Amino acid sequence: MAEPVTSEDVYDYIIVGAGTAGCLLANRLSVDPAARVLLLEAGGKDNYHWIHIPVGYLYLMGNPRTDWGYSTAAEPGLNGRSLAYPRGRVLGGCSSINGMIYMRGQARDYDVWRQLGNPGWSWEDCLPYFLKHQDQMAMEPSAFEGMHGRGGEWRIEKPRVSWEILDAFREAAAEAGIPKSDDFNAGDNEGCGYFQVNQRSGVRWNTAKGFLRPIQHRSNLTVTTHAQVRWMTLQGRRVTGVTFFSGGQQVTARARREVVLAAGSIGTPQIMQLSGIGPGQVLQRAGITVVHELAGVGENLQDHLQVRCAFKVQGVRTMNERYQSLVQRAGFALQYAATRRGPMTMAPSQLGAFTRSDPSRETPNLQYHVQPLTLPKFGEPLDPFPAFTASVCNLRPSSRGWVRVLSPDPAAHPEIRPNYLATEDDRQVAADAVRLTRRIAGMPALAKYRPEEFRPGPEIATDAELARAAGDISTTIFHPVGTCKMGTDDRAVVDPRLKVHGLEGLRIADASIMPNITSGNTNSPTLMIAEKAAAMMLEDAHH
Known about the structure:
The chain is α/β, with parallel strands linked by helices. It contains 15 helices and 25 strands. Strands 1, 2, 10, 11, 12, 13 and 25 form a seven-stranded mixed beta sheet that branches. Strands 7, 17, 18, 19, 20, 23 and 24 form a seven-stranded antiparallel beta sheet that branches. Strand 1, helix 1 and strand 2 (about 35-40) form a beta-alpha-beta unit. The longest helix has 19 residues, at about 525-540.
């Protein structure tokens, strides 16, 4: 890859953010050797050992080497709590620090995007872009049925560890009416089964490995790490380039064709607002001159909030008591070193389930992440007794929040306010979700382990009590989307070809363009968005 950037270098494409979307975009846009591509990443290289060991996510979130270190504003729906809000700041972005779960969402999600005025974004339209980079090794090709592919850059495998308590939960879910499923990614993810993971032989697979490493010989691609973008440069209504810090110096690079923002649902609206593009009142309050009024920039924030229900058990091993033993932990490390199997290959959640909080829901609106462990809160030690967590989230929250800059300083964190549990429907779904979890825990398949609820606690029973308790024990699953939404209404930021309304030379290709959040983990939908964006950009370049 080419030399460091000097001021006023000219490229065909400048990609801001070498995360999930940015690595794929760099791969696709640099295919033409005549096109000069610059990929900018605020963080460093993905050469930290904990990135590659799956359980290492514990050491990546909150670590300034790999995480931006954001937190939310104090949330009324969480009874005044603020949550840590990890976002990847390293090559590979969130794919370097996330839970490695391969999940597309539901066909209905994309069909609704199309119905909202976004032609070309139905499930049928999007599926080829999921397939284009897929390397599905968790299933046999005989089960693909046109829904899966092999040979792409995005590796998917089966988990390499199993737990008796999770097998029992799956049986209990079936007894409660949630059928067993071996494939959550064929358009309807209803059912209970083990998540497929983005790993290769027990090692994390991120987008830097999948999309950047194979093309690092391309002389027309420049990847610059430790390059934090301050703002974009404009001439009239055209975005002409970006200004960023690199090696202690301020550098401006110019784009002949397009600048593509792939900085994620926090970074992308922040860079837009710092450049004077966004809601006028927000910019003026922050002391930023309004260059282009665009009301939706930073608005429409959606996220999945998980209610972390926890149950003590007896007569079965969980991670809690195994982790207390130094001998067992040493055994985990030896097993991983020798076989790339065992607890060190664990994603944060192994078992998943999709179901409805009540029968009136058209498709499943709840997702479970079930874990053979419990902890008071993320980052704290595991509880000292055998227990499991059944986290359950509302897949389609109606609450909407925002990301807003508070000052013109690019190093200052923006205000992040998801507005969790702000609507009556979201509070009702949270209460219903806890009740359903109790019903599963009460099924015969779990009876021999004598599950005993201790979070939120069996004495909490009314809708109001359950919603309040959800505010006390819930956390984010790290799926912020929607802050530069696609559409044609007055709050839309990009059109269906991902071009920013009212500006030339600027596209957005990350999770911020989602009009509505997808029904599941958001990493692979973000890759699909980038794949589709790259195809549209290459198509436009040849016309």
